Hints:
about 50% strand, eight-stranded antiparallel barrel, alpha+beta, 9 strands, disordered N terminus, 2 helices
Amino acid sequence: VLIYKKLTKMKKNIFLILTVLLSFCVTTTSCGDDDNASSSDLIGKWTMVSDIGYDNDLENPKYNQEWNDTYTKGQITIEFEEDGSFYEDDKYENYKSYGQWRIKGSKLYLTYDDEDDYEAAYTIAIMTTNQLILELYGKDQYYEHYSKTTWERID
């Protein structure tokens, strides 16, 4: 019985040590700079593939809306230049916009020159050499918006 108690206590101690070591490994590897997006990956022309999201009118819910849209190649494009400028061409809505872009951490900031210097802060969910997924969320006392757009490189 004494040997069984010692083995049980030893197993508990080993389990505790392994748990602490595993926790340390997870926290030190998840806090690196790998989450930061590189601006060089963004340079070029992209076409929107899909846009999903919702708009909620918090005072009048009958105006709430959801969407899940897909687009053909070239229907909505955005081009990011090395000098920090961008040009967006929306043939679907017949609208063009331009401005400045910058990346800080996992955020892509677009400042639209043609809309009173409006700045949108997109979260970069995925950015590879061929795919870009951006999320935009905003909420105030009257309105809530969420969108997730998927882009593919076309140049």
